[in-house]
Amino acid sequence: MDGTRKKYANPFAFLAVMLTISLLVMNNFIDDYLIMVDDFGQSIDVGGENVDGSTQNLFLQKDNFKNFNLFLIQYQNYVTFTLVPLYSIISFFTYRKPYNYSEHLTINAYIAGLTTILGVGIFLISLLLNSNLYVNFGMLMSVVFYIYAFAKLYKQSPKQILFSFMKFIGILLAIAIIYLVLIIIGVFVYKVLLN
């Protein structure tokens, strides 16, 4: 990345291989995964009464949570390949120099591939230990690894790491808000055109 040309693994081929391994493992142990996720959902059950008087889980509705997790497993490759450019835009605006957007794509593809394979390892350990380790720490592990990778790449102090993380979250929230506003406008325009 410092101007020297070396043979690197194609970052998107690397990511595709890691996602394929993850998909094979997750599909092979899909029933165990769903039990693990169901146990996690029960452990953080937040019950309450709805307006109509019925009692149901307000934080997680079992069927929706299960369907969401099935969706993530079935479409993990698409979700990850969609998120890599988004993370690259955010990391580009967070860190800027000396790397351009295409280099951020490369960096984020490698990080996504590594976090995917680390997630598979944590998932398999969770199955062996019969614990919710994967569900509880999978996302946290990804965030920590992203922070670690960029902190090492940019040789940041703890104060700079915290600032960069807050800037990353701020940009992510701004993009999410813009996306939400566009969806609301789209729904509004669609309903107006329908009438």
Notable characteristics:
195 residues; mainly alpha; two-stranded antiparallel ribbon; 7 helices; 78% helix; globular
Count of alpha/pi helices? 7
Record the strand order, biggest sheet. 1-2
User: Residue share in helices?
Assistant: over 70%
CA(first)-CA(last) distance: 55 Å
Q: How many extended strands? A: 2
Q: Which structural class should the secondary elements be placed in?
A: mainly alpha
Sheet-strand content, in percent, reads under 5%
Helix and strand string, N-terminal first?
Answer: HHEEHHHHH
Rg over alpha carbons: 20 Å
The average pLDDT is: 81
Shape: globular
Total domain count: 1
Low-confidence stretches: none
Biggest beta sheet summary: 2 strands, antiparallel
Break the fold down into its secondary structure elements and pairings.
Layout lengths: L10 H18 L1 H14 L3 E3 L5 E3 L4 H13 L1 H20 L5 H29 L3 H22 L3 H37 L1
Antiparallel strand pairs: 1-2
Explain this structure to me?
- This protein is mainly alpha-helical and 195 residues long.
- It has one domain.
- Helices cover 78% and strands 3% of the residues.
- It has helices spanning 11-28, 30-43, 62-74, 76-95, 101-129, 133-154, 158-194, and strands spanning 47-49, 55-57.
- The protein has a two-stranded antiparallel sheet with strand order 1-2.
- Strand 1 and strand 2 form a beta hairpin.
- Helix 4 (76-95) crosses helix 5, helix 4 (76-95) packs across helix 7 (158-194) and helix 5 (101-129) runs antiparallel to helix 6 (133-154).
- The model has no long low-confidence stretch (mean pLDDT 81).
